Amino acid sequence: xxxxxxxxxxxxxxxxxTKNALIGVAEEMGVALQRSAYSTNIKTRKDFSCALFDxxxxxxxxxxxxxxxLGSLPxxxxxxxxxxxxxxGRPLEAGEALITNxxxxxxxxxxxxxxxxxxxxxxxxxxxxxxxxxxxDIGGATHASLPVSKEIYxxxxxxxxxxxxxxxxxxxxxxxxxxxxxxxxxxxxxxxxAQIGAHMIxxxxxxxxxxxxxxxxxxxxxxxxxxxxxxxxLHDLAPLPRGTYRAEDFLDDDGHTTEPIRIAGALTxxxxxxxxxxxxxxxxxxxxxxxxxxxTYAAVAFFLKCIVSDDIPVNDGFYRTVNVYAPEGTVVNxxxxxxxxxxxxxxxxxxxxxxxxxxxCQPDRAVxxxxxxxxxxxxxxxxxxxPGSFYAxxxxxxxxxxxxxxVDGMDxxxxxxxNTENAPVEELEMQYPVRxxxxxxxxxSDGAGAYRGxxxxxxxxxxxxxxxxxxxxxxxxxxxxxGIAGGEPGSPARFSLQRRGREIPLRxxxxxxxxxxxxxxxCTPGGGGYGTPVDRDPAIVAEDVRLGKISIERxxxxxxxxxxxxxxxxxxxxxxxxxxxxxxSRTLPETRDREDSSEQSQ
Length: 602
Fold this sequence. Notes:
The model is unreliable at 1-5 and 588-602 (pLDDT under 50). The protein is globular and about 80 Å long. It is of the alpha+beta class. Helix 7 (293-307) packs parallel to helix 9 (343-361). The strands form 4 sheets. Strands 2-1-5-4-3-6-7 form a 7-stranded antiparallel sheet, with helices on both faces. A 5-stranded antiparallel sheet has the order 14-15-20-17-18, with helices on one face. It has helices spanning 9-36, 40-43, 72-88, 172-179, 185-213, 215-237, 293-307, 316-319, 343-361, 425-431, 538-546, 552-559, 572-585, 589-601; strands at residues 48-54, 59-62, 97-100, 112-121, 124-134, 162-166, 169-170, 243-251, 261-270, 273-277, 322-325, 376-382, 390-396, 435-441, 457-463, 469-473, 494-499, 502-505, 509-513, 518-523. The chain is 33% helix and 21% strand. It folds into 3 domains: 4-232, no CATH class; 366-531, no CATH class; 535-602, no CATH class.
């Protein structure tokens, strides 16, 4: 199948019906999982993903929810099913389910727990249903399982592929082992059972589809769908200039030393699809800031999804066009036993490298750097509302997205690999012993540009009880989100502890013991800007001032726009004079200072 045009309208209609029927099953699994989950992280933030596989363990439908999990299930399911089959000498049987979170068996960080169930139709193995969900705690050295680790064994319970279900019933012994190793046992138990319940939905719905289509016809349609998907991806890539495009970026540090971590990528586009070579990337560290190939594969898959048509489904045909070379023992293909809890921070930076490389290929589609971090936040401790029990909470904090040609970056959003939803203040304060003292956009955090970057977010956590623990696994305090086409970098991340009137700066990777009324202040980066700041429409700059997004001082120093403080409208004559001077000197003094400091830090 060379191109989409080779199929007639009837065949395309049948493929569309098949595609949507399969995706509908995966999405219904997701709805069931969300509605029956216990933790805020799953029921509200939707930190999970669901997929279907055929009997050959090829992914055939993916409910596109969390981009970070794009690479997890397609790599993990074949690995664990094959291992189990070899070990037992037989395939998974009806009524059985495997559970695993092993990062070195195709998984991601240990909180991401996967369950796989077989689907049988009239006694014949016809496929698999799979879910992966971020459990709020999986044990380890800290609440929410976010330690500044050196080895994966510090990060929590490492589950090999084991049966969580036998004969259609939950294996209570395996479940008890898991719950005995976690702090938030109530939430974890509820969320695991929610995953299993979603599988029961998926099995029934897939059995129904097989019965309705017929096994042979459905199998034929799936083969056509996979081939069609591959052809669509290649068709979308065909107009792009052939060649290899290189870029790099840096993580601040590894949490133990101050040495930056370099990520280098070479993006090649040719008739076979895209290939990424990460040669030149730094070696893995005894730290939490490592990614297995699964993390990296997810970042590459997300990048590809962004540059092709949005109606192309994510299935095995999509992944056939992706080739990743990541040398073993590097931070993008780590080997046991180094820690990986910060792997999604590494993968976020991989996304940035790929978009930076793509900007050389397609300048008109270039996007400046987004916040570039997950900003993993976890806290917990003894639960004063349930004496004798413990609680744990996990979330990520949004920030600014990058500007692009014709469009400003969005303020306060999840970007790149994370599109989890907001954890509402009301729900947090109702569920957990914490107060959110401040939750706001950060003025002047944008990367200035003709199209500015989005604003970062400030979120303050206040703890009325002592004895709690707080964890941060994040980045971007040194290497700011880069601008493009003359745009400036966004503001950096900042973290601090406010204790008894003192403000104590924190590293971007840290574990804290909290005292009564301590406040942890989290400020996420703004997005990078696109285009020269003095080319921004002065009326839009003045509107940003009126909305409180930028200050009068920043309007003048970064954008060359003079705003009258009495009515917050821009002064045309003063602005023209200032911008004329700026264009003659090519840069503003304050702007040059910001760019110089960014270049020195990089």
